[in-house]
Design brief:
The chain has two domains: 53 residues, no CATH class; 73 residues, no CATH class. Helix content is 57%, strand content 4%. Helix 4 runs antiparallel to helix 6. By secondary structure, it is mostly helical. The radius of gyration is 32 Å and the shape is elongated.
């Protein structure tokens, strides 16, 4: 990094170009001073994480950081994850069966339009039931 101005800051464009070339080529990072500086910085960073080591231990980490899995309802309300209830069943029918191109041909050949309309209306009825249940919090756990 020593430049022609006696080791001070670069003052001319030529000196700046020499400093930039050294940085770009990576030679500045190969010196012992840079390596010692990097080692000290890595050590300080590692020591700053030491107070949080207790959270990596099984039971201790669970006490401080465990939370029950949660989910959001379509209306944005936070609720417990429902993997076996009506909302999960309706989501399966709506997203995975009725809106999927994968089953479109099979549904069209197997069911008449009137039967498909019944399925769609049943899904809509179930969604209305869920919306009504969320308006009455006492019924939510049973839905």
């Amino acid at each position: 990094w020593e430049v022609s101005s006696g080791g001070g800051a670069p003052s001319t464009l030529e000196e700046w170009m020499r400093v930039l070339a050294t940085l770009i080529q990576g030679g500045a990072f190969a010196t012992w001073r840079a390596q010692v500086t990097f080692a000290v910085v890595k050590l300080v960073f590692a020591l700053s994480a030491a107070p949080f080591f207790c959270f990596t231990l099984g039971p201790v980490g669970k006490v401080f950081a465990h939370a029950d899995p949660t989910a959001y309802t379509p209306s944005g309300r936070l609720a417990q994850t429902d993997t076996s209830g009506l909302s999960a069943y309706l989501a399966f029918w709506k997203e995975d069966v009725l809106e999927s191109e994968r089953f479109r041909q099979e549904l069209d050949t197997t069911f008449t339009p009137a039967e498909m309309q019944k399925v769609h209306s049943a899904v809509e009825s179930g969604e209305r039931c869920l919306e009504d249940a969320w308006q009455r919090p006492g019924t939510v756990k049973r839905t």
